[in-house]
């Protein structure tokens, strides 16, 4: 290939303009999916707390109950009660019956008994709050999209060049592959954008998305707490302090780092293989779209639980002197160890929207 036929290297400004424009189009089209995903992640399962309590009690009491059963009397059995929200515990050695409240017809406020999928969640939002409710928090996305894209691509190129220079300087060109450098550069790029832009923008976006006011009622719109990204950031800082804009920074860093490391690595590898197979130096537009969607969807398939934890941490309002209700360890330990069969609904049910959004973005 001659020197004149080689593709020219694009300037950083071109990457910034193209990335920012693409980000604006992507967020405008895919933001409803992000709103649905956020609502699904914030939804509480009515039986989760009960399952945690029951499993913790059984795990601690089972040896004692087994010993009591073998020496004295049979263990009690739970049988359905005639009244909603009640259960009866009876023993074969006597007629004693214990009635236990299980929540039933009166679940805790803010809980959903039957989990809704993406379509059901979207219908509920539109019916109760109006179609424009799917675009709550869009101003926060618009505010952060251009800086995020600029930091992502510019920092990736800088990290990649630094790592390549360090590899050559250390004389390890034959030991460290270009794929490893791409992965590491993507990881650092994701961590950088998470700290500088993504976390504050996500906090403001999630606070706006979690409001359940109707967009069709002027009175409700007038009395909503969070209106736009600037006002939301101001209220958060005034009520909770400047550090509140960085709630969930650790899971956000892990999510963004994983996403960009996998995304850049998979995209470059697949792109290289396709061009070698075709014998060309460039890809068609539809090929770039398909490869970008495939590589972009690999990260969320692994780190969606981190996204759920991040969303719940960023939604909670914590005033100075008040302990946090949601932390990383509580979410992971309780859900994984004790809830068990609710793991899918808590951590993975929102992945459909997440994958579709990432694919098209």
Summary, kept brief:
The protein is built from 13 helices and five strands. The protein has 361 residues and is mainly alpha-helical. The strands form two sheets. The protein has a three-stranded antiparallel β-sheet with strand order 2-3-4, with no helix packed on it. Strands 1-5 form a two-stranded parallel ribbon.
* Rg calculated over all Cα atoms: 26 Å
Hey, roughly how much beta strand do the residues contain?
under 5%
Low-confidence stretches: 1-6, 45-50, 64-114, 335-343
- State the shape: globular
Helical content (DSSP H or I, runs of 4+)? 55-70%
Number of strands: 5
Average pLDDT score: 74
Structural class given helices, strands, pairing? Answer: mainly alpha
Cross-sheet strand order for the largest sheet: 2-3-4
Describe the structure.
The protein has 361 residues and is mainly α. Helices cover 65% and strands 5% of the residues. The chain has 13 helices and five strands. Helix 1 crosses helix 3 and helix 5 crosses helix 8. The longest helix has 32 residues. The two termini are 33 Å apart.
Notable traits:
361 residues; mainly alpha; two-stranded parallel sheet; globular
């Amino acid at each position: 290939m001659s020197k004149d036929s080689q593709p020219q290297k694009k300037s950083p400004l071109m990457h910034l303009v193209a990335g920012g424009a693409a980000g604006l189009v992507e967020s405008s089209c895919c933001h409803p999916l992000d709103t649905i995903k956020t609502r699904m992640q914030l939804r509480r399962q009515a039986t989760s707390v009960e399952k945690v309590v029951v499993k913790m009690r059984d795990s601690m009491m089972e040896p004692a109950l087994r010993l009591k059963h073998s020496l004295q009397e049979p263990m009690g059995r739970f049988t359905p009660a005639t009244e909603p929200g009640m259960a009866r515990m009876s023993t074969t050695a006597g007629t004693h019956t214990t009635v236990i409240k299980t929540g039933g017809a009166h679940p805790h406020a803010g809980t959903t008994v039957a989990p809704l999928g993406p379509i059901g969640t979207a219908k509920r939002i539109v019916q109760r709050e109006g179609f424009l409710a799917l675009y709550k928090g869009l101003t926060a996305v618009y505010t952060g999209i251009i800086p995020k894209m600029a930091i992502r691509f510019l920092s990736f190129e800088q990290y990649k060049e630094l790592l390549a220079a360090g590899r050559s300087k250390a004389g390890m060109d034959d030991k460290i592959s270009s794929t490893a450098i791409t992965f590491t550069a993507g990881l650092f790029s994701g961590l950088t954008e998470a700290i500088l832009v993504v976390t504050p923008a996500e906090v403001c976006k999630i606070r706006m998305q979690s409001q359940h006011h109707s967009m069709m009622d002027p009175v409700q719109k007038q009395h909503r707490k969070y209106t736009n990204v600037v006002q939301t950031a101001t209220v958060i800082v005034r009520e909770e302090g400047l550090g509140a804009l960085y709630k969930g920074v650790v899971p956000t860093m892990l999510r963004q780092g994983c996403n960009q490391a996998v995304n850049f690595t998979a995209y470059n590898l697949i792109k290289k293989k396709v061009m070698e197979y075709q014998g060309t130096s460039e890809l068609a537009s539809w090929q770039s779209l398909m490869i970008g969607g495939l590589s972009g969807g690999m990260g969320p398939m692994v780190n969606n639980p981190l996204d759920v934890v991040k969303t719940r941490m960023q939604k909670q309002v914590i005033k100075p002197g008040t302990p946090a209700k949601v932390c990383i360890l509580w979410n992971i330990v309780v859900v994984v160890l004790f809830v068990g069969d609710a793991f899918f609904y808590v951590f993975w049910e929102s992945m459909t929207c997440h994958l579709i959004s990432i694919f098209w973005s």
